[in-house]
Design a protein that fits this description.
This protein is of the alpha+beta class. It has two helices and five strands. It has a five-stranded antiparallel beta sheet, with helices on one face. The model has no long low-confidence stretch (mean pLDDT 86).
Length: 92
């Protein structure tokens, strides 16, 4: 199942696993067009040259890939508090 990570460069973390989702949940949470495919490697969270805002990363395993969601990682800008609230509604 796809993994969703929250990344906060100001905290210099490497990305915190926030949720394990179904592909249907991914489609509900993330507009595919807003997610940028970044390849097979998890994107850098903290850059030495300057910090970026918070963002989220979606990881899709090879066995879960579809024509819509390729294997690898997608990065997208998100208000993590808002995204977290939306995740909580999925479990209800």
């Amino acid at each position: 199942m796809p993994n969703l990570y929250f990344c906060q460069p100001h905290a210099q973390n490497q990305g915190m696993l926030r949720a394990v989702l179904s592909l249907a949940d991914c489609n509900r949470l993330i507009a595919h067009t807003s997610a940028t495919y970044v390849g097979d490697d998890f994107p850098k969270v903290y850059e030495q040259d300057g910090q970026t805002g918070d963002f989220a990363v979606l990881g899709i395993g090879a066995d879960e890939a579809t024509p819509e969601w390729r294997h690898g990682y997608y990065r997208f800008e998100a208000d993590l508090m808002e995204l977290n609230a939306r995740i909580l509604t999925l479990s209800r």
